[in-house]
Amino acid sequence: MSVVAFAPASTANVSVGFDVLGAAMAPVDGTMLGDRVWVGDTDGEFSLTTVGAYAHKLPEDFSQNIVYDCYLAFEKAIFDKGVTSKPLQMTLEKSMPVGSGLGSSATSIVAAFVALNAFYNEPLSQHELMLLMGELEGQISGSLHYDNVAPCHFGGLQLVIDEAGIVSQTLPSFDDWYFVLCYPGINVSTSAARSILPAQYRRQDCLTYGRRLGGFVHACHTHQEPLAAAMLKDVIAEPYRAQLIPGFDAVRDQAAALGALATGISGSGPTVFSVLKDVEQAEKLKSWLGEHFIQNEDGFCHICKIDTQGARVTGTQL
């Protein structure tokens, strides 16, 4: 038996919701932007191999790979349920750049857990899986937050609750919004992006953050698109993280000139996103970013919409 699971890229924060908003992303051209994990039977010992465009960025020792940690955590979880382990082997197809601001670690973690759960005929509930995903993501980033793993797993635009036994819930989103995502090819580590943030914030910034987040959630539920777009402004992270992304101000200006509703930093960066309603303008921005923002051959740009599927089993072969 074998199974393959895919987990999509995600943009965390979505400007207005630091650590509590995240959206799964799907390129409109059909590109599978995310990671895949294969799990199969074996007659020998456990093994984990890595393939894909960014496999060379991962540790050579598989015991240092987060997918191996996922395997160990999953085995413990099913042991606690009385499920007998099977000899298996795994392969991670690493198609997401590390430190890109697109939930790279989350895609590996979510794909691994979804594949393992399918391989074992779903012994863990979706809630149990999500708790494990958050725990493993916390090992990478240094703190527990679900704004990448929740949309990556469930799809859609997720509001992290993390109260009353609820990790996150799906917000209504706007079907005619195009997200132009551009990764310039440089890396910004989540820990470095967090360390640049102040330890304390002014009362006015906290009030503005709460007002805009509340306004955005309300606008989503009441289908007030102009209001939702107006709320997509970040007073928590962007004023500090923008300096880590060369050319960010120029991107914002160019996007605005092309009619963008909003522009922001995806997660910790350096990927940036702009929201547009006109696909032709989105194509023009994508072309401009390719010429003026992407810095090397590792960079890329995609026009996306929100991926409503989230992680899924896609077959039995990579």
UniProtKB/TrEMBL annotation:
Among Gene3D superfamilies, the record links this protein to:
3.30.230.10, GHMP kinase, C-terminal domain
- Give a GO molecular function annotation for the protein: ATP binding
One biological process term from GO is: threonine biosynthetic process
Cite the binding residues for ATP: 97-107
Q: Which SUPFAM superfamilies match?
A: GHMP Kinase, C-terminal domain, Ribosomal protein S5 domain 2-like
Q: Where is the GHMP kinase N-terminal domain?
A: 65-156
The record's InterPro entries line, in alphabetical order, gives: GHMP_kinase_C_dom, GHMP_kinase_C_sf, GHMP_kinase_N_dom, GHMP_knse_ATP-bd_CS, Homoserine_kinase, Ribosomal_Su5_D2-typ_SF, Ribsml_uS5_D2-typ_fold_subgr
The reply on keyword Plastid is no
Recorded catalytic activity of this chain's protein: L-homoserine + ATP = O-phospho-L-homoserine + ADP + H(+)
Q: Does the keyword Kinase apply?
A: yes
Record-level GO cellular component terms: cytoplasm
Q: In which pathway does it act?
A: Amino-acid biosynthesis; L-threonine biosynthesis; L-threonine from L-aspartate: step 4/5
Entry's Pfam families? GHMP_kinases_C (PF08544), GHMP_kinases_N (PF00288)
The source's domain of life comes to Bacteria
Q: Which PROSITE patterns match?
A: GHMP_KINASES_ATP
Q: What is its EC number?
A: 2.7.1.39
- Could you tell me the keywords of this UniProt record? Amino-acid biosynthesis, ATP-binding, Cytoplasm, Kinase, Nucleotide-binding, Threonine biosynthesis, Transferase
PANTHER family found in the cross-reference section: HOMOSERINE KINASE, HOMOSERINE/4-DIPHOSPHOCYTIDYL-2-C-METHYL-D-ERYTHRITOL KINASE
> What family is it from?
Belongs to the GHMP kinase family. Homoserine kinase subfamily.
Q: What does this protein do?
A: Catalyzes the ATP-dependent phosphorylation of L-homoserine to L-homoserine phosphate.
Name this polypeptide is given? Homoserine kinase
Supply the source organism for this entry.
Oceanisphaera avium
Identify the gene encoding this protein.
Answer: thrB
